[in-house]
Amino acid sequence: MNLHPFADENGDTLHEECGVFGVINTEGEAAAMTALGLHALQHRGQEAAGISSFDGKQFYTRRGLGHVAENFSTAESIDELPGFMAAGHVRYSTTGGAGLRNVQPLFADLASGGFSIAHNGNISNAGTLREELVSKGAIFQSTSDTEVIIHLVATSRYPTMLDKLTDALRLVEGAYALIVMTPRGMAACRDPLGIRPLQMGRKDGAVVFASETVAFGAIGATFEREVEPGELIEVDFDGSIRTHRPFGNNPARPCIFEHVYFSRPDSIFAGRSVYEARKAIGTQLALESPCDADLVVPVPDSGVPAAIGYSQQSGLPFELGIIRSHYVGRTFIQPSDGARHSGVSRKHSANRSIVEGKRIVLIDDSIVRGTTSLKIVEMMRDAGATEVHFRVASAPFAHGCYYGVDVPERSKLLAARMKLEAMQTFIKADSLAFVSIDGLYRAVGEEKRKSSCPQFCDACFTGDYPTRLTDVSRREQDAAQLSFPDTKPVDEPV
Amino acid sequence: MNLHPFADENGDTLHEECGVFGVINTEGEAAAMTALGLHALQHRGQEAAGISSFDGKQFYTRRGLGHVAENFSTAESIDELPGFMAAGHVRYSTTGGAGLRNVQPLFADLASGGFSIAHNGNISNAGTLREELVSKGAIFQSTSDTEVIIHLVATSRYPTMLDKLTDALRLVEGAYALIVMTPRGMAACRDPLGIRPLQMGRKDGAVVFASETVAFGAIGATFEREVEPGELIEVDFDGSIRTHRPFGNNPARPCIFEHVYFSRPDSIFAGRSVYEARKAIGTQLALESPCDADLVVPVPDSGVPAAIGYSQQSGLPFELGIIRSHYVGRTFIQPSDGARHSGVSRKHSANRSIVEGKRIVLIDDSIVRGTTSLKIVEMMRDAGATEVHFRVASAPFAHGCYYGVDVPERSKLLAARMKLEAMQTFIKADSLAFVSIDGLYRAVGEEKRKSSCPQFCDACFTGDYPTRLTDVSRREQDAAQLSFPDTKPVDEPV
Amino acid sequence: MNLHPFADENGDTLHEECGVFGVINTEGEAAAMTALGLHALQHRGQEAAGISSFDGKQFYTRRGLGHVAENFSTAESIDELPGFMAAGHVRYSTTGGAGLRNVQPLFADLASGGFSIAHNGNISNAGTLREELVSKGAIFQSTSDTEVIIHLVATSRYPTMLDKLTDALRLVEGAYALIVMTPRGMAACRDPLGIRPLQMGRKDGAVVFASETVAFGAIGATFEREVEPGELIEVDFDGSIRTHRPFGNNPARPCIFEHVYFSRPDSIFAGRSVYEARKAIGTQLALESPCDADLVVPVPDSGVPAAIGYSQQSGLPFELGIIRSHYVGRTFIQPSDGARHSGVSRKHSANRSIVEGKRIVLIDDSIVRGTTSLKIVEMMRDAGATEVHFRVASAPFAHGCYYGVDVPERSKLLAARMKLEAMQTFIKADSLAFVSIDGLYRAVGEEKRKSSCPQFCDACFTGDYPTRLTDVSRREQDAAQLSFPDTKPVDEPV
Amino acid sequence: MNLHPFADENGDTLHEECGVFGVINTEGEAAAMTALGLHALQHRGQEAAGISSFDGKQFYTRRGLGHVAENFSTAESIDELPGFMAAGHVRYSTTGGAGLRNVQPLFADLASGGFSIAHNGNISNAGTLREELVSKGAIFQSTSDTEVIIHLVATSRYPTMLDKLTDALRLVEGAYALIVMTPRGMAACRDPLGIRPLQMGRKDGAVVFASETVAFGAIGATFEREVEPGELIEVDFDGSIRTHRPFGNNPARPCIFEHVYFSRPDSIFAGRSVYEARKAIGTQLALESPCDADLVVPVPDSGVPAAIGYSQQSGLPFELGIIRSHYVGRTFIQPSDGARHSGVSRKHSANRSIVEGKRIVLIDDSIVRGTTSLKIVEMMRDAGATEVHFRVASAPFAHGCYYGVDVPERSKLLAARMKLEAMQTFIKADSLAFVSIDGLYRAVGEEKRKSSCPQFCDACFTGDYPTRLTDVSRREQDAAQLSFPDTKPVDEPV
What we know:
4 copies of one chain form a homotetramer.
Chain A: H1 7-10, E1 15-16, E2 18-24, H2 30-40, E3 48-54, E4 59-65, H3 68-72, H4 75-79, E5 85-91, E6 106-110, E7 113-123, H5 126-135, H6 146-155, H7 161-171, E8 174-182, E9 185-190, E10 199-203, E11 206-210, H8 214-219, E12 222-226, E13 232-236, E14 241-244, H9 257-262, E15 268-269, E16 272-273, H10 274-288, E17 295-298, H11 304-314, E18 322-324, E19 348-350, H12 352-355, E20 359-364, H13 371-382, E21 387-392, E22 405-406, H14 414-417, H15 420-427, E23 431-434, H16 437-443, H17 459-462, H18 470-478
Parallel strand pairs in A: 17-20, 20-21, 21-23
Antiparallel strand pairs in A: 1-22, 2-5, 2-11, 3-4, 3-5, 6-7, 7-8, 8-9, 9-13, 10-11, 10-12, 13-14, 15-16, 18-19
């Protein structure tokens, strides 16, 4: 959820790339429910949205750039999408450019009938598979990794749609939460490690799937359970539900960053309240890195729960020392006299009367490039803070993500460039601390990280990737000499 | 600032009608500064925005419906507005309909030269004055009350522009903060009682005026002082500043609702931090109306500072029991199965894991029609709260405003219709308390309300209007039998 | 009617500035009729359109840039304009810039009630009158000359609306066809000389006014008669019609260029079919300036009727040697290799198979700057024409127009710069002839021009202006030394 | 070219479905030339336009709904299309719906590289081929028949691109003029019978292809020759040109309706000026069906050349008895009083002063449904014509087209429903005559139609289709009982 006040000023942020939603066996209002569900998932992808529906005879699709509300709030838009089954997608552009062709759900008319797919995640061998398919005469209509799955299904020689889909997914590597529609029903599927989330709910006779549980609340549905890692759930139009495990059993490794940043605080992920997990991270931070200060100040909005946790554990008062503007989104023409350089921001402002003359603990969710953190520290000092202690509710972010999160290239990540002390100097803080990896695991309910078999995907912190990365390996072989010099962090700012 | 999660669903909200900003003696970037300044005042008026500039030869004006960012963020839009003096306006439609003609600044080519005016407030005898002017041949181009001032200036027989303006303002009654531009300089003026706010700042050689101090931060200017009630400040192009008091000296009565709701928490109003005033109201509430509960939950975002104050005073933990969505603005087509009636909202959601099984104190800034409060209480109960105690950070809102605030008609105001107990029953709370009038005055720094000569305009709470209301009186005489039966509050919901 | 194929390439064209339409005493569909009527008058003004209506209680107005069809073809647009009386206006921008504020009908709320006015023509002392009004405190909302009339009405001390209007028009000088609406009915009025046209029609119980008779056909109304020069016709809601002659009786001098160019060929103007007048001009041309050639080729579309007349009189075959494209309006990016300079045009093309090896007579309606004529001659030669004889269906256009026609400044008019022979050389024709002034008068039904008291306004040909030109005289006094040296035509191209 | 005044009122018209244009070996301005060329072909397809270009490295494509000028007149749009080779397409929707996906040129990334195709015509076995391809796993991105060719190329096992294309075209049946671009050059190809037109031109070093010769004039290119029926011309980047005849030699059968209606009058088609062909049809009509009348009146604009021919042959004067409005395109809200039923039209009007009291010969290009002809006759009578003789510059249009022309279903065609006498009664004419088939052939330069081997495709007149119609046959077998009762024309209007 792109809530960070400096987010679009300098690209110093992370983006989840997608949210998916599907509903089957409603009484004809599947698209309206899907629009509401996607709207609740808007924070997972703000650049484009799409919905496909099925009315027993044919599929209907409508896709557009921009927010769900811009594309799916009118009666006309919903009337174009009749039927009792629908699935939708919100997207932040990553793989494949931002054109309308890449907006999902993707749809194809296969010999076996219509096939619609919505995908959150990233297929790490998509480039390799695509080359093979094109060499056999396949024509791709998008640059999306997801289209690979469709072509694999289209050319699979298995007889049933379920077998074709399983056949296709066995060739695929990486992270995915999928919602598939065919003229016979809906299938929801999560990758063998469950890296990307997928939840299941119910509303009267309907079955609902969504990336996060908040989408269920938006339509009055009740949360039933997570789709399990490696599970494929089939729902037919007669209401029957069958579950499959095409990849056998694997220990799960869901993305720990869903807790730290992506998911909405009122969602339940991996069996735990995101809000409570974030508060618990704040508590851990206060235990691990206490601070002699006057106030706890969150970087709004994503730092708020951890700041509450820190405040409650430490006994330091929680105060809104930074006020976030509700009217952001465009960059204004700046007068030339350096308003920008004086630390002024249109997106938030220091609450000087609270901050002035105080020693403050700033709580933020993460440090990516560090430029934002520097600006915030400077803004607090400009407003009269006498000491600024920075506490980060995640571990140092030092590695790229190949599972569907848009991360700056590694050479831009502050934690990949510097050690802790240099980072503190870079952001000009009086002290700097991250929560420990084990503290993070404790906050999300584990005793500690099991290094032999970690309970989460934490590759962005540890570099320990849970799958093969075929396309990356090929690119690295092609361009070995261009790779980032991993062993020598640079201490100077870029 | 329209931050209330239910705001545009049922009209249960208040709107400030305007914000003004002006800057003189920049080096040619007056419009860019004005755009940034207005953007910081966006919460005071979100329906339209306008900027006029002057480059020593002529005036340029650009106005548009929608937000400042939609109209003034591009280089093209700013390039249309050259010059070293500019003034702007953001508007929430009240008097005069929503057409572009009513978007300010208003401009007229008078015999003495160009005349531009931006106005926050409401002239309570505008209708009467307009009739007189039209009967003499004046042709109005808008339905705005502000245009009356221009015609009074145009037809004044005094020689200088300052005398003409003073002549005009002496005929005018009500509330106003004005920024006027002529080919000779800028004038900023506040009504005799200072009902509406106006602040003065400096940036290098430039002088800046704005409705709130946050606008100074947005352009790197420093806050100097409030324009005083009844003060008219003239700034010339040579930098000279003269202050006038055309109405003599009056005791000030600024709008106390600026502290309660309108101003941004990081603004300074009437010499006091708005954030601190709101926290102090929360403290007063905790002292006056304590509560045996588990959690303090703010109605975001405007209830947050008071909730922090309540939490700190009471020792009850502050928790985000309601999560606000950042993607609101359009009403979606609702599935017919009653999602709306089950208390579901797209704009926020209960944070069930925090609320469930708990006794909570809800803190909101005010109760207007009461329908919103009812929905919030129901949402908390649906999420499992065992008790919901409602605490309001203002006094009962029982009277209309004739000074530039858009208030539902009196027959819709819950506090005009019911006594406290009935209100508690209406919103289905386990207990309900408002801060007392004297508690409110204490929170904003006074010892208590001086009833002979109140320090603030608090007519919305007390019905004690500080000016004549000429147009209202005439309408009431015209339609005495249609008036609201003030003496018999009705206890049933509408 | 801007039908000339080169029109928007180089500004070498004339524009009528307005068309007006009004209808009263329909049964509630006045706006729909007005939209159809204006659409038929679209050729008189293509930059903006507006309609005002009255439903017995209030006036409604809608105005927009662009064509009638873009603004008034939807049910929504018409539904905004209820009532049984309406008037509209199409505009080609001349006096007053192109902003929406200048789009007519103009409307004002006077003390005596609403007042709406639509005006075709130009008031030649508007600047002088405006200054006087502003010095008395009047505030203008547009830069249109028409607004002067409203202010004169607003400040007139006569008691009735008819008297106020007459009072105002007595102060006004120039050309006008007006349609005025008040809460008591409609008034249609033509200037004392009848320079601009205004026609009256009937449809069932309704009375209709329009600039041209084609508008009657568009709504199924029948043409009744011309509004006479200096006549003011009042129509009340009870159907009564009264005619007034506030300026006494004057000999009429309608604009002869309505016959030559402005009016649609299927209109009746000054009692004569425009198509027949144009054919008769062609006949005159053939009699006065015969030619030994193979074909008569019109410059489409405005040259077609005169070419038919020339062909029938001369016996030379009429052929489409120039084909006009129906898809024009935007200027394309040109490849850099000089496609433009080779005489290529997107708006028309030579019909080479007809023209090649032939001696042709080209018939055009007029020569303004001459650059278009040169291009056409070159295009014909490029297509293989062996001789090109140019015949012009009007007299040499050598003087500006102050009566509502947009003419290039005099120094750009070819006939003001050169004598006949030099003009022929300039446009590279083998021969060049204009119809004579007396031939022109004969074609429109007169015996010859009465020089003591000409039957038409032909100032653009003769420089004999029928009214005072107050604003022009003042400007010329202000800048006598800048004036165009009238006596020495320059023979070189600019 | 949709020039018919009633065209979009009642669907009584024919539409060519496409125009194509390509240019190779320019110096980097291929897209700008293509935009100009397509603009000149706008009459062949007004619903959508697209251009693809190639700069030696990659392909660029831009497509949009609406006219060429709306999509390709800005520098931004052309800058998106760099390169020295480009091809474009204008489209009137027929096969495949109006969505953007069907707008050409279509593009695919094949294993052998990029492949772009623009197609005018219709593939009459596209449905059958598509089914086969999908059953093998092909995924179609459009519903266009053209995409079949791409998939056939993608899956062809021949080694070179030329062989793959030839292989694909051998499987295809119907009418096509194609422009193909690959990373190695351009290919232009016409179906074996040359049903759809394709012309070749030169401009400096560049080679140009276009549906009509007018496109060459628009860019300053010279016409070289027709691409011959069944010819495939390859142009490489080194300027070498090779011609192929993959289908052997066949007698040509170009579409005779290009002469009658589709092509612009200033085009050369099948070696003959279209304008002269149309005039010659008028001459034939005058010889075959003379008339005792006063005037010849064309239905503008498409009837004009034939009317000139009729006038010159008969000696009857040619007059503009119908004036066409230049401002059409939207349907206005009609007042309810029946303006529509009284024969009033916004698109044209009777020139009453010319028509009144006269016996007229109306010349139109064709009769499709007949409703338009009826309206025109009624309009002439309403305007006072005493006799209306209808002469049609083509033969009775009684059969559908399967080669890329959008024709109403056969049951709507007047000539399929009635014999000549009934048609005359239906349109209320005093006499009615069509040109004879042999007269038509004489007008276009043949002695007569050779029935054993007709020189043109005239299936719309004769029902003699020159190719197999595989998809039609299958549909007819599927639904034999639903077919139109061919043998019993119905005499009543629908």
